[in-house]
Design brief:
alpha/beta; 612 residues; three-stranded antiparallel beta sheet; six-stranded mixed beta sheet; 22 helices
């Protein structure tokens, strides 16, 4: 198998024809090719814009931060000191223009390359916009505390400032609604083939630019980040991405993703050519001077100045990927997970669009409980095949395991919508809502699962009966649990305790009832009962990490210092592997030192020798 795979990969690389006229591209990666400079702007906070007129943009600053970090990676060729990041209140009009002016004076070589990325609000400077007749201007909305002339930069002004760089290549990315108006009227009638600016906008003149909670980015930034990682390289796979490849990749990927995301047919849009977000490009041409956007893994090979027929090579690549993935899957069956991960990472590096490689890698990470890595792998798989229902379910489950309710629900609901006759997504949606104590919705999804599962061969009748029994118990439990929560909100802990006691008698395996009960008992200083309730909590759900701390404190109050110290160590051990969710971490560190002293004194008083 190894010999066959090596031969296939070698054939896939060697069959690439040699290119002529690649000196200009190779020059971009030589040490004397000049500097690469980036100005990255992200604004999500606009104090002066009303929510009635402007929709919230949640990820603008996050987009900019991730773009800046990615530009510093080796494949992009930027020095860390050459990437200038301006976020929110540091991204006012004056700050942006002053940064551009400073860099124009500092970098004055025609060999330099300048990137400018803006993500935030944008608008058209006209009550009536006729994009076809170039009668409007685009405004970049910057940070300010009031809506005046200092709160915006016209694209015409930005264009003139950027053209003053000596650099032969200036690349502009505008990630904002209506950003396609950047071409109008500034660039109207120009011979753009003579211009040194390459301009990429996230959408058209009169179209929105969308964010997606499932990826935590704007759609445009998401695919731009993928391009920076080499995904825009065409099927020739020559390890370099040019501006033309970037343009085609961004436009096709964003349009397809947003069309699917918003389900344009349900909105009554009839034309197949009307996209709800349509990235635009200007100044990008197939010529010998076409600049290299990003390289991957060392020096690029020579490249021609025209497209080629790669259908035969694609077949070879597909065959190679299949062989590698089969080998990785065999390792998974034998529980050789590290070996499988190594194999899949290699094939993904060679073929970034290999859907099955990303999917299998996600599944390996799930089996080894590496949930964050699994999420990233499944997101890459979704990008390669947005319609795959199985991956949506797997991704939803991976987000569920890290407590990310919003993203988990998004993908599981997307899977359910994609194939409403398949019960799996509904079962997982029910489980997700049950874990987050949203019992009414959980019951609804469980009932939908039972309705659909009765006609599925690989789901047993016993499984369906078990779910139905769970629905009945959950319904009874939820009545008393929710009533207890309501009584707590009304500052009636005594009655709330009675309701939680009833709930735990109905189902002693649900941790949330025991946890609420324990907190009431702890506040009442009934530490014996509190310790009992918190022990039931951690037995039913170890993820209730605060229970370990409160259990330790209960035993400390009871004078059971050895038990208290043991549970405190469990809490701190869990805290070491988490960035959040442990509000008592500092107190726990102090308590551990105090408990160690108390335990030594207790052992001395009892005559029991302390351990060495």
């Amino acid at each position: 198998m190894t010999t066959k795979l090596t031969m296939l990969m070698a054939l896939c690389i060697c069959c690439l024809p040699a290119f002529a006229g690649a000196d200009e591209i190779v020059e971009q990666f030589r040490s004397d090719a000049g500097e690469k400079i980036a100005i990255v702007v992200g604004i999500a906070d606009y104090p002066y814009l009303s929510s009635e007129e402007y929709s919230e943009i949640r990820y603008a600053a996050a987009n900019a931060e991730k773009i800046a970090r990615t530009l510093k990676q080796p494949q992009c060729g930027f020095r860390e000191s050459n990437v200038f990041l301006l976020l929110n209140d540091a991204a006012g009009r004056a700050a942006i223009l002053d940064t551009i002016d400073m860099l124009k004076q500092k970098y004055d070589s025609y060999k330099d390359t300048v990137y400018f990325y803006f993500c935030g609000h944008g608008e058209i400077d006209s009550e009536y916009c006729d994009c076809d007749n170039a009668s409007c201007e685009f405004l970049l909305k910057t940070y300010n505390t009031s809506n005046n002339s200092d709160s915006e930069i016209s694209f015409g002004e930005l264009y003139r400032e950027l053209r003053q760089f000596e650099a032969d290549n200036v690349v502009v990315f505008i990630d904002a609604c209506h950003s396609g108006a950047c071409y109008i009227p500034t660039l109207a009638g120009r011979d753009n083939s003579k211009d040194k600016l390459r301009i990429f906008t996230s959408t058209g003149c009169a179209l929105n630019s969308y964010e997606d909670v499932s990826i935590g980015h704007s759609v445009f930034a998401w695919f731009l980040l993928k391009a920076l990682g080499g995904h825009a390289d065409d099927m020739v796979d020559d390890a370099v991405t040019t501006s033309v490849e970037l343009s085609e990749y961004i436009q096709q990927s964003v349009e397809t993703y947003v069309d699917r995301m918003l389900d344009k047919n349900s909105l009554g849009l009839q034309s197949n050519y009307l996209h709800l977000q349509s990235p635009q490009t200007i100044g990008v041409f197939w010529d010998q001077n076409d600049f290299v956007f990003v390289k991957r893994n060392g020096a690029p090979v020579e490249r021609d100045d025209r497209r080629r027929d790669t259908s035969g090579q694609s077949d070879i690549a597909e065959s190679a990927v299949t062989d590698v993935c089969n080998r990785a899957e065999l390792c998974m069956l034998r529980h050789k997970y590290d070996e499988a991960i190594g194999i899949l990472r290699t094939v993904i590096q060679e073929y970034p669009r290999a859907f099955r490689g990303h999917q299998l890698l996600g599944e390996v990470y799930c089996r080894t409980r590496q949930w964050k890595e699994a999420q990233n792998a499944f997101l890459d798989a979704i990008a390669a095949d947005p319609d795959n229902i199985r991956v949506k379910v797997l991704l939803g489950n991976a987000f569920m395991m890290t407590g990310d309710f919003a993203r988990s629900r998004y993908f599981l609901q997307a899977a359910a919508r994609s194939d409403s006759d398949k019960p799996t997504a509904y079962y997982n949606l029910a489980l997700l809502h049950e874990r987050h104590l949203r019992y009414a919705e959980a019951i609804e999804y469980y009932e939908r699962f039972c309705e659909l599962a009765s006609g599925v061969d690989d789901i047993s009748a016993g499984k369906i009966d078990s779910v139905k029994n769970n629905i009945d118990a959950m319904y009874k439990y939820a009545i008393h649990f929710e009533k207890g929560k309501e009584l707590l909100r009304s500052n009636n802990p005594g009655e709330a305790e009675r309701e939680f006691n009833i709930a735990t008698r109905i189902d002693k395996y649900r941790a949330e009832g025991w946890y609420e009960l324990g907190k009431i008992q702890y506040e009442r200083q009934d530490y014996s009962q509190a310790a009992r309730s918190f022990k039931y909590t951690v037995a039913a759900a170890p993820q209730y990490q605060n229970s370990y701390y409160l259990l330790a404190k209960s035993f400390e109050e009871l004078g059971e210092y050895e038990y208290a110290l043991g549970y405190l160590e469990v809490y701190l051990d869990k805290a070491q592997h988490s960035l959040d969710g442990f509000p008592f971490r500092a107190e726990a560190e102090i308590s551990r030192n105090a408990l160690e002293r108390k335990l030594r004194i207790q052992r001395d008083d009892s005559g029991i020798a302390a351990p060495p």
